[in-house]
Write a structure and sequence with these properties.
- 2 copies of one chain form a homodimer.
- The first copy, chain A, contains 13 helices and 31 strands.
- By secondary structure, chain A is α+β, with helices and mostly antiparallel strands.
- In chain A, the strands form 8 sheets. In chain A, strands 1-2-9-10-11-12-19-16-15-14 form a 10-stranded antiparallel β-sheet, with helices on one face. In chain A, strands 6, 7, 8, 13, 17 and 18 form a 6-stranded antiparallel β-sheet that branches. A 3-stranded antiparallel β-sheet of chain A has the order 3-4-5, with no helix packed on it.
- Chain A is elongated.
- Chain A starts with 6 loop residues before the first strand and ends in a 12-residue tail after the last strand.
- Chains A and B meet through α1 and α2 of A and α1 and α2 of B.
Chain lengths: 625, 625
């Protein structure tokens, strides 16, 4: 790699500024904070979804494509014979200026070509189900300029998995409606679906396209769509095949004139009985209401202002001033921002996670919680309850749950025996931050079964006992499918090349595979659990738990210590893993970290720093158990 | 559509000749006749797999991409500043001549540019696990010409489904070895897999690439790979990310000189104990043996000749001479060819079937059998046994089975109640063609369970009885999930937008949904079954079956006839479907066809034509039951 600079941090604006579109890989941002999310790269590639990247994919994206990151929300500006995009891609026409600013839940791309400046602000307004794209075209020259503008979005047929697989079906289902400047994606809405999407612009249009093949052509790529190259929209109406949404607008700009075009990509759900206003004519009321919220520059600027203030508030809660710019930047801006993104997505969607193979992780969401609980305690509280609701009565867990349904899913396998401890970890972190012990009294079901509700405190107890009830021959915790190291699958012996390590049968029956990492995690979270029991007056339970923790400490000392370091595990046959006796893999970090003390004391974590932890939100006060 | 001609039939050569690469959609051919298969478009797009398009995908393909059909086996010829492909794509450099000939299990593409002719013959030799690509470069000018030649294949990471989904994993697994002129794709071979692939050329190479990103670049497409555009291979060695195989050869051609380059794309399986010859060094013995079979023009021409003779034999068995060229062409060449392709793939892979969502159909394979049984009776016999082996003891069926494992799979749902009848249909068709009653004595298991074997005749009986035992209120067959019309799902009521019609719960409990199509099919195949019983001396069973068929005929007459036509079905609630009483969907073709007589009498099907049915293979004689 060269020492080439691709960009820099702008701490004042809390932005990362990319000045060369040819980054070594797409550099992406996440838009959206509640239900509607978008991934956007520095060249405007990416996609949008509602709540669930698998089951409610709104726009289509092709992972691992050639070229990489080929597909997104594209604006084509045709200026005579020159066609260019504000984000450089997909045309890759050389620009006179390019800049992409990834900010807090927004991305702003600005570029110039032949005296025309194009700025696009992308963001998902708070409490909205849409992505707003404010395109500003400015004529910086002394001459009148006439441009042809094409927008472009490609619809996904809702389920991102089958969208890639079942073409016998997919190519027959696409449906759109076009009304005024709004293109509606109503595929499958006629039958089982009660939701549609739309793409609008706040100005009359001079044409449109909704059929991809007609717009792009068979032999061209996104870099040279037929309709754009010829400067002539086809006004195509998709029936099946691949529906898209492209607006066509003829733009005349006086010298110095600047003009905003506000595009809205939105999602709507209708009640079953309100789906249609006439045969085959969908009920557009909610779409029109959403569009009306952002149909002027003033309204968009106000919504953007509200988003900025939201982030100001979030990031103002916890601020350090260490004297080290880089540390301050990481702690005060980017790490907290990243934690919020993780809260929203739990790593289910990125440019490496396709949004298909997994949902929200039981372990992940609990451990990530530490990073955002101070920012959004109410939502952290709900998250804990959602997670706990997928737990089984014996304390065992689905390893994932689907964000749309909040139901556990076993696609990726269950029985990761560290999972239960993480519920204690997350709940304790929440209470320490908020002092809200009332969460322990919340009635939470098992496996989402109505009637099975018990107080959350009881979930913590079964979590604790899941370890106690699943000990191996050395009285250390059985590992189950795996622990923190998902790939340490000690009970899998498949020689079948078609089986994934995560879904192959887990030979736990008769297994002696034990995990020192879980042992350490159990001692850390067990001590937290004991302290919690004492705080809420459950002295007897604290006593009971203390004995188990003490026994675990003894077991670790007796059979988990190799003389110089902690073992990592015992395998299926009871042989040591992570021992100096091993020829390979002699030492692992996980067991050293978790066993080497009582683990991170969360409430002391920041004491050494000049931290400003704002308590203006009165419910926020750190509690030491 | 215009009247533009894209190509024509060449009956003498049994080829379809495409003369314009810009066909309205990719026009494809299928290579391979036993285990190794390739799909190839008229521009050399497509992919290869071993037996199973899902579980053993060898090269990567992106369905529904932009541009369409973007990816395949590509040769790049760099001639000074001009880069072109024999198949026009992906560079789309205008050619002086282009022709693609799709023949019987082979495709030959010939093109010319600036005095260089490039001909490529693609085929899968008989009894081989590889695709041979014979590239012939000819200098038709008076000057010495120096060319740079790059080959290109992109490896799929074996499982075509997860290859598109799990990048956290995929980008970390790719592994290759390069030895001489052979590039080995050994991803996951170290652990659970016992198979690898290779891509070779029969000449020393001047360079190579195995890492896609290095070869193509991030921002270019297949139409302009960095390495090719710069005329400089990178000799990249893939570790993870996307492994590819590209050879680089510097070619000098004297005036008039012609030179062959033979590329082989192959697949190898090794026994567990023979996987390696040294740590991390794979056992290449079988690959080298396969390459040696095709390392000269003479050997390749001989293998191609053998393939041609194979097809001559197959198509010589049944020939009509109707005086109508188009009918003869269809019956004598293309329909029989298509039937063989269907035998091989059962529609599991095409440019509309991604090869992922389905395997071989229980119904499909039985009904398709009629089309190829006269060509390959031994293989038809095996197919019937394979299919029957997936049947349940009560006669019910998986709707699909996976070609790699020959095990039934329920991914797409089961309980299509017409399925069992099709086993009778297929078996009877086989016996009529071959006179081989011994198939009825073959011991065939249920659901592949060892120990459950019964004679195939018993499978026919449970098939027959599956209808008898699943009658509805009108004594007509319950439809189950669906019948011949997969989409007529009368027992599905999901309002859940995430459920597919094929996997949603089928409310068969208490259902009154009956199918007239199955009723008709049952009468047709039931009568065949009765005749078969009589032929093998099972008079009592024939009597028993006759009563059930007679009762079905009565039921159809009584409750299936609408006065003017046959109903299609009764729905879940017992209401008529396909009746003049209905407001919509008053008549369906399926029930008219199957109920209107005793169905197609297979042994009379060709009697009106001057058909030449060669019986030189003595086992072939049409039998009337």
């Amino acid at each position: 790699m060269s020492n080439k600079k691709y960009g820099h941090f702008d701490d004042q604006s809390r932005e990362y500024v990319i000045t060369d579109p040819c980054t070594p890989w797409p550099w992406i941002n996440y838009l959206g904070n509640e239900d509607f999310f978008s991934l956007i790269s520095n060249t405007a590639g990416g996609y949008s979804f509602y709540k669930d990247a698998k089951f409610r994919r709104i726009t289509r994206y092709r992972y691992n494509n050639v070229p990489m990151d080929n597909g997104g929300r594209y604006f084509y500006i045709k200026d005579g014979d020159t066609v260019w995009n504000p984000g450089w891609k997909p045309c890759k026409t050389p620009l006179d200026f390019y800049e992409c600013r990834h900010g807090m839940s927004y991305t702003r791309i600005t570029s110039r070509k032949d005296g025309i400046e194009a700025g696009v602000l992308f963001f998902v307004p708070l409490k909205s189900w849409c992505e707003v794209q404010k395109l500003t075209l400015t004529n910086t020259t002394d001459a009148v300029r006439r441009l042809q503008l094409f927008s472009f979005e490609e619809w996904c047929l809702w389920n991102a998995a089958t969208d890639m697989e079942n073409f016998q079906r997919n190519f027959s289902t696409g449906e759109v409606e076009i009304e005024g400047s709004v293109i509606y994606h109503k595929t499958e809405y006629r039958e089982r679906r009660n939701h549609y999407a739309f793409y609008s612009v706040n100005t009359p249009i001079d044409g449109y396209d909704t059929d991809r093949e007609t717009f792009v052509g068979l032999y061209n790529g996104f870099d040279a769509p037929d309709a754009v190259m010829e400067g002539r929209p086809r006004n195509s109406h998709a029936h099946g095949w691949s529906p898209i949404a492209s607006h066509y607008i003829e733009v005349e700009l006086q010298p110095g004139e600047s003009r905003d075009f506000i595009f809205v990509l939105g999602y709507v759900e209708n009640a079953q009985e309100e789906k249609f206003i006439a045969p085959q004519v969908i009920n557009k009321e909610k779409a029109k209401a959403a569009i009306a919220l952002y149909d002027t520059t003033e309204k968009v600027d106000a919504a953007f202002q509200a988003l900025n203030e939201y982030w100001d508030r979030l990031l103002d809660i916890y601020v350090v001033d260490t004297g080290n710019d880089k540390l301050d930047r990481m702690v005060n801006i980017w790490n907290q921002y990243q934690c919020m993104v993780t809260f929203n997505m739990s790593r289910s969607a990125s440019f490496f996670e396709s949004g298909i193979g997994r949902g929200m992780g039981f372990r992940d969401s609990n451990q990530d919680l530490v990073g955002f609980v101070h920012q959004i305690p109410e939502r952290a509280r709900q998250r804990i309850i959602d997670i706990a609701s997928t737990q089984f009565p014996d304390g065992g867990c689905y390893h994932q749950y689907q964000p749309l349904t909040k139901r556990g899913n076993n696609d990726i396998g269950g029985g990761f025996n560290d999972d239960p401890c993480w519920l204690i970890f997350g709940t304790v972190a929440y209470i320490k931050e908020t002092g809200d012990f009332s969460i322990l009294d919340e009635l939470v079901p098992f496996d989402n079964q109505p009637g099975s509700e018990v107080p959350l405190m009881e979930h913590l107890r079964v979590s604790f006992d899941h370890v106690v009830n699943n000990l191996g021959p050395h009285c250390l915790p059985l590992i189950g499918r795996a622990d923190w190291n998902d790939c340490l699958n000690l009970n899998c012996f498949s020689w079948d090349p078609n089986e994934s390590f995560q879904t192959t049968e887990n030979k736990t029956e008769g297994s002696k595979a034990e995990s020192l990492m879980i042992a350490g995690l159990f001692v850390v979270t067990g001590n937290e659990y004991i302290a919690l029991c004492r705080r809420v007056g459950e002295e007897e339970e604290a006593e009971r738990a203390s004995k188990h923790v003490a026994e675990m400490v003894e077991a670790v000392k007796r059979d988990g210590w190799d003389g110089e370091w902690y073992l990592r595990a015992y395998d299926y046959y009871g042989r040591k893993i992570g021992s100096k006796e091993n020829e390979e893999a002699q030492i692992f970090i996980e067991s050293q970290g978790w066993c080497s003390g009582e683990g991170p004391r969360l409430c002391e974590g920041t004491s050494g720093m000049r931290a400003r932890h704002r308590t203006q939100q009165s419910r926020l006060h750190q509690v030491c158990l």
